[in-house]
Amino acid sequence: PIELYPVLRALHPDFATIDFATYAHRYCGAYWNGFQLDVKGATRIDELEAKLQGFMLRRTEAEVYPDRVEPLLHQVPIELSISDLSAIIAAEDEIGGREARLSSSFDKCSQLGDTARLLRLLGLAKVARVVAFVDDILETVDKVVVFAHHRDVIKELSRRFAAQSIGHVIFQGGMNDIEKDYAKKAFAVDKNTRIFIGQDDAAGTGVDGLQRVCSTVVFAEWDWVPGETRQRIKRLGRTGQKEKL
User: Fold this and answer.
1) What is the mean pLDDT of the chain?
2) Which whole-number Å values give the CA distances from 118 to 25, 97, 160, in the listed order?
3) Are 241 and 211 in contact (CB under 8 A)?
4) Nearest in space to 152 (alpha carbons), one of 126, 176, 178
5) For the whole model, what pTM was predicted?
6) Which range is least confidently modeled, 86-90, 110-114, 124-128, 145-149?
7) How far apart are the first and last CA of the chain?
8) What pLDDT score was predicted for residue 172?
């Protein structure tokens, strides 16, 4: 419900004078979680639904695109050697052997940083296997979209694809519009540009055109949020896609 608030406040007469906090407490079950006001809940849904009658029309994706086929998803197991995992093991040993902090709140924050660090190292450890897997896929399809999160991982993927003379482009944060447009165009029109490496946040939404030349996507790094992953898959499951994903 919280996502509706800006639209309702601007356009719906019944909400024109309701401030954010009032709306959040009434319809989102807002509460203080110790850090901030948590507004992710949903309360008094029947009341909110009644107010939206005649104002908002909702259609599901299946209703809008009845012929769209759900993508086929495969989780591909890979084997990593002790050598592959050496950097991760060293980081885990360092984290596990760290002296306890005086502040428990500091520990909670440091754990987030430790987790991010381990995820980056895991992404790097998987690069060689991801490249080999994509290389195998290119035996049967013309083009592949590869999603990754960390720039170190993207850089290493690019280096290894270049070493194998596999044409590819990168689409990531920090690039200007001209560079991003070039990457999309090259992937779309150049038959020798076979791989589109997209950074999760930069290429995960709002990118159109990939679906016209590609129906295969590989995730070199998996997101914690399923909805974000679905959005990235939909970069290929858009109008213009003629193949099964």
Assistant:
1) 90
2) 38, 15, 22
3) yes
4) 126
5) 0.75
6) 110-114
7) 32
8) 95
The span from the CA of 192 to the CA of 194, in Å, is 6
Calculate mean pLDDT across residues 164-169: 96
**Looking at the predicted structure, is the pLDDT value of residue 109 above 60?**
yes
Q: Are 85 and 125 in contact (CB under 8 A)?
A: yes
Residue by residue, DSSP assigns the chain as -GGGHHHHHHH-GGGTT--HHHHHHHHS--EE-SSSEE------HHHHHHHHTTT-----HHHH-TTPPPPP---------TTTTHHHHHHHHHHHTSPPPS-HHHHHHHHHHHHHHHHHHHHHHHHHHHHHHHHHHTTT-S-EEEEES-HHHHHHHHHHHHHTT-EEEEE-TT--HHHHHHHHHHHHH-TTEEEEEEEHHHHSSS--SGGGT---EEESS--S-HHHHHHHHTTTSSTT--S--
Give 32's strand partners.
Answer: 37
